[in-house]
Amino acid sequence: MPVPILLVTGFLGAGKTTVVNHLLAHAEGRRIAAVVNDFGAINIDAELIAGASDGVVSLANGCICCSLEGDLLRTLSTLLRRDPKPEYIVIETSGVADPSDIVRNLMDPVILREAPLETVLCVMDAGTPPSALDDALVRAQLRVADIVALSKLDLADEGAGARMREAIRVLRVPAVVVDAQHGEIPAALLFPATIDSAPATREPGPRRPAEERFETLSWTSDHPISLPRLQQAIGRLAPKLARAKGLFETVEQPGRLTVFQFAGGRATLAPGEAPTPGVPRSRIVFIAELGVLSKAELDGILAECVASG
């Protein structure tokens, strides 16, 4: 099973390590491996430390933390060979790194197959003057982001968050912008629900992530769908979506699943495995801001994608 990667970027002092600390301390059963530049800033509660060896700190909750020394791809290969293998990998970049270079490295075919880049998170200090967005490196960090998290709101003056949101909007950054009080970000945005071979449950209504700004809606179908119609449907839904991912079988390619991802305003399709008997042929999870997209509207739009007959 592929291990999704969360790439955390942001300028020096933005609060990236605070976000990583929160993810590790509140893993909620997820087996997370964090790749960081400096162990010293990782402030894990002492009772969570289970041991350290070979540059890896093991945590009692099943997570691990390792130092990025040398080649990133070699570090990832080492993590993927661990037993048990992590369920997620979080990479914290240097504050002066252009994440586009790291993204290119993660597009290595071997790594992409075993550890696909799931989400790029850019952490921004809410108190940063909007003029700082003129910096080429800051713009590069924002440009690749699927999610922008505004940190240190408790330290900024009133209205700083709104000013930063407007400055980001002016740059036409397609990412979803969220507040990150004390490093906390809705896990449903960072780790969307896993779509695997297990039967998908049919939900009577939306499930809401921890932060009441977003809700998760699921759609399933026992029939193959038309890819052109689905592409039209996603085009209609895109302005209302924060994230989406799923698997579906199309009329155009029967007997083969297609993997669908939508993040940062961008949709991608990739070939998947053969369908599993007894499991709905189409399973897609959507995350939208609370109240922006109703289940009835979603079902109505996607019902048009189901092949007739």
Descriptive overview:
The protein folds into two domains: 5-190, P-loop containing nucleotide triphosphate hydrolases (Rossmann fold, 3-Layer(aba) Sandwich), CATH 3.40.50; 214-303, CobW-like, C-terminal domain (Hypothetical Protein Yjia, Chain: A,domain 2, 2-Layer Sandwich). With 309 residues, the protein is α/β, with parallel strands linked by helices. It has nine helices and 14 strands. It has helices at residues 16-25, 72-80, 99-106, 109-114, 136-143, 160-170, 187-190, 227-237, 295-303, and strands spanning 5-9, 32-36, 49-53, 56-59, 64-67, 88-92, 117-125, 147-151, 176-179, 214-221, 241-249, 257-263, 266-271, 282-289. β12 and β13 (266-271) form a beta hairpin. The strands form two sheets. A nine-stranded mixed beta sheet has the order 3-4-5-2-6-1-7-8-9, sandwiched between helices. 25% of the residues lie in helices and 27% in strands. The longest helix has 11 residues, at 160-170. The protein is globular, with a radius of gyration of 20 Å. The two termini are 34 Å apart.
Query: Terminal Cα separation, in Å?
Result: 34 Å
> Could you give a short account of the major beta sheet?
9 strands, mixed
CATH architectural designation of the largest domain: 3-Layer(aba) Sandwich
Helix and strand pattern: EHEEEEHEHHEHEHEHEHEEEEH
Please, what is the CATH homologous superfamily of the largest domain? P-loop containing nucleotide triphosphate hydrolases
Q: Strand tally, please?
A: 14
Order of strands, widest sheet = 3-4-5-2-6-1-7-8-9
Multimerization status: single chain
Q: Return the domain count.
A: 2
Tertiary shape: globular
Question: Treating each run of at least 4 consecutive H or I residues as one helix, how many helices?
Answer: 9
The proportion of residues in beta strands is 25-35%
Say what the CATH topology of the largest domain is. Answer: Rossmann fold
Helix percent reads 10-25%
What is the residue-averaged pLDDT?
A: 82
Low-confidence runs of at least 5 consecutive residues = 197-211
CATH class placement of the largest domain: Alpha Beta
The radius of gyration over CA amounts to 20 Å
